[in-house]
Amino acid sequence: MFFKRTPSITINELSSKLAEKPQILDVREPNEFSAGHIPGARNIPLGKVSSYTPKGKTYIICQSGMRSKRAAKLLLSKGYDVVNVRGGMSSWTGQTRGGKL
Fold it and tell me: Which domains does the chain have, with CATH numbers?
């Protein structure tokens, strides 16, 4: 378990799953989230992730992929089914809600 790899997907792979309405957890700060996020994503900042309980498979995203990887490792260690989204919102070219990204 100590050296278990964090499951991850690319932005393009996440984009292809949007029709299935996957659970997306955005771990950026609220001001970053309100500036533009993936429709349907839930915002729980990284600092509060330890008290979050995902329900089913959850895709975790941030701005670049670093915070989401940390969040994914934390939630994986608690036994949750989570997947890190590599590249983050800085690589996202799909539809967003909120401000301009």
Answer: 8-85 (3.40.250.10)
